[in-house]
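lol so apparently i was supposed to do this last week
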Amino acid sequence: MRSSNETPKMVIIEALGKKYRSQGADMPALIDINLEIEGGEFICLLGPSGCGKSTLLKIIAGLIPASSGRITIDGKPINGPGPERAVVFQDYALFPWMTVRDNIEFGLEARKLARSARKEISTKLLRTVGLSDFADRFPHHLSGGMKQRVSIARALAVNPSLLLMDEPFGALDAQTRQTLQDELLRIWREYRKTVIFVTHSIEEAIYLSDRIVVMTARPGRIKEIVTVQEARPRDMTGNGMNLRQREVRAVLNEEIKRAAALEQEDMMAGASHG
Ligand code: ADP
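anyway here it is w/ adenosine-5'-diphosphate bound
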């Protein structure tokens, strides 16, 4: 990895906490999150459903505020969304009334870029995500995998240094997911982005990451950070990757069980109140 102790960290998360107000009470969702990320790293946030992965990603994106602690990006505290961060969601969030090209150019228009400059960028990105022939189509003509390619292109259009991805391939079939994982790795290398990628899939986290941040069941804390050193492309059937999967599964299993027990408690509480 390209780590060096002297490299200033790109993202620094310190003593971060988040509470949600729910039914008149403050419910902790994240507790004491401390994490440093280098420029160019590929980080996965992995944990059982409800552990606060999306919450953490949204706070880094500046879409929701933290309750305590702080985050800096390249030394600047975050205070709402910023041009150096772009988010890709699972549900694509494309504008159905806009063509593929217009969707990709959307963020550029907001930045008052000239039409010709916008077109140059979208043409390049259409090529990057393999959709040059679909520039004038509308989202409803596209498959899920193609829609997610458009979302990725749209995120890249504004040239962010940090790409924040919330289970972006979670709704795709296994084959499409695998293809998009490979394309994302290619794009990550080619465009030299820093990626923070939320997933609850161990395989996905191991296939993609430089480091996996494993979180506890809610309220989410960082349980362990696993470094994946295997060279890419990674052979998921090889011994090294199998070993790695067993290692991460052992860390995560306990938390998945705890998350299931918490869910059971919630259901019982719901039943007794209902
Ligand atoms: P994950 O992405 O790991 O599945 P989330 O970040 O979506 O987890 O949610 C973490 C916890 O915070 C869950 O218990 C969830 O119910 C709760 N939560 C998320 N968003 C809100 C909200 N807007 N209001 C109240 N509680 C929320």
